[in-house]
Amino acid sequence: MLGLPLLLGVPPAWLLARVPFPGKAFVRSLVLLPMALPPTVGGVALLLAFGHRELLGP
Predict the structure, then answer these.
(1) Which residue among 8, 10, 38, 46 has its CA within the 20 to 30 Å range from the CA of 32?
(2) Concatenated DSSP letters for 4-21?
(3) Is 16 in contact with 28 (CB distance < 8 Å)?
(4) What is residue 56's predicted lDDT score, i.e. its pLDDT?
(5) What does the alpha-carbon distance between residue 57 and residue 50 come to, in Å, rounded to a whole number?
(6) Are 13 and 32 in contact (CB under 8 A)?
């Protein structure tokens, strides 16, 4: 179970950390997106539920 993430994660991480290449910022943003998306979705859901024009009442 540990082998597949190691094979798929360590080489790209090493490349992102050590090797300059065109499109590095785009690849880095794709790698960071799964970590940033859940809090963003949670924040939008809370804003819709309890914000200025909330779904749960005025």
Answers:
(1) 46
(2) HHHHHHHHHHHHHHH---
(3) yes
(4) 61
(5) 8
(6) no
